[in-house]
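Researcher: Sequence recovery benchmark, item below. Answer with residues only.
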């Protein structure tokens, strides 16, 4: 805030609010060197005091920023930052009215930059979410057979994540079989799985708001040479990238390692997304492992490593783990088998 010449910052993004204050309800925050104020409405009165005990809690019927503007005027805080990637034009108009006479300034990524490197508590929660996701995979592979629908498999995964994790799955569980595997984000359908198809499953668990993200691709009944070959290429790409992942390495270099393996095998055109994304309170956050990403990786960052090959009319293979950058390399937080598997 000092570097950006701000007297105070309005935090409206729900995950940023949670990160800064612990509060998980609806509201908005004002932070200045001397103040930590939280505005919410009557529904969250008790929750706000429990979750954010050190914060001054203001109750407003309409969740209006007026009360915060009042605090700014009393404390002579003039330059007020707001999160421009979160504030709608409508919200902005309301801020302009409430903060009239004060200097509202759009800022980007202030809280996100703090969230980039996880502390020990955050790592512990993502590790727990990773263990639950790994256990969900071990559970579901005991129940997959031809004749089942993608939806049935997705439901089993979700049931496990809900009963063992805390809260709902981290995102809508992806189960895509056969040709549908060519869609990296295919939604589970009522289609039945047939022997000889590959099934791609992508899902994650939640632990106190912190998420994990894992993908495994398995064969059902039987397999052919091409399935085995593509799987081998994707696995080699993932292992090579993991081998490269450590502090001091530039994000794009890790992507490049995986991309080279897949390109050399002749499937470069079919690896259609970036290698990975940060995971935390959001399922997609910084840092991104992608071409042109110049972030220098640091111990405590958590990212996915998820190369994939998607061939239209054939299907797809993706292998994804959630990974912690450590002082000496990296640690997989979704530690379950990823050898070629035929169920
Ligand atoms: Zn995923
Ligand atoms: Zn992912």
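Model:
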């Amino acid at each position: 805030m000092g570097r950006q010449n701000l007297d105070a910052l309005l935090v409206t993004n729900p995950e940023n609010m949670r990160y800064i204050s612990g509060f998980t309800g609806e509201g908005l925050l004002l932070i200045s060197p001397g103040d930590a104020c939280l505005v919410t409405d009557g529904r969250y009165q008790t929750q706000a005091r429990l979750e954010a005990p050190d914060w001054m809690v203001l109750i407003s019927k309409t969740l209006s920023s007026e009360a915060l503007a009042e605090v700014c005027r009393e404390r002579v805080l003039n330059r007020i930052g707001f999160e421009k990637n979160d504030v709608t034009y409508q919200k902005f108009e309301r801020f302009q009215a409430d903060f009239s006479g004060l200097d509202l300034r759009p800022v980007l990524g202030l809280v996100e930059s703090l969230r980039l490197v996880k502390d020990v508590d955050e790592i512990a929660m993502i590790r727990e979410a990773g263990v639950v996701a790994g256990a969900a995979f071990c559970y579901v592979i005991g129940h997959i057979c031809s004749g089942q629908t993608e939806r049935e498999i997705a439901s089993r995964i979700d049931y496990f994540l809900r009963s063992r994790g805390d809260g709902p799955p981290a995102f809508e569980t992806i189960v895509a079989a056969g040709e549908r595997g060519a869609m990296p984000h295919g939604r589970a359908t009522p289609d039945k799985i047939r022997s000889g198809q590959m099934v791609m499953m992508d899902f994650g668990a939640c632990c106190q708001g912190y998420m994990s993200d894992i993908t495994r691709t398995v064969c059902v009944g039987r397999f052919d040479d091409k399935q085995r070959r593509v799987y081998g290429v994707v696995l080699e790409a993932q292992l090579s990238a993991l081998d490269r992942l450590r502090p001091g390495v530039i994000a794009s270099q890790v992507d490049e390692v995986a991309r080279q393996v897949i390109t050399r095998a002749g499937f470069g055109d079919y690896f259609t997304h970036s290698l990975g994304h940060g995971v935390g309170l959001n399922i997609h956050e910084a840092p991104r492992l992608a071409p042109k990403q110049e972030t220098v990786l640091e111990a405590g960052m958590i990212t996915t490593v998820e190369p994939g090959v998607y061939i239209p009319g054939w299907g797809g293979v993706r292998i994804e783990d959630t990974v912690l950058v450590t002082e000496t390399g990296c640690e997989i937080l979704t530690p379950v088998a990823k050898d070629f598997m035929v169920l």
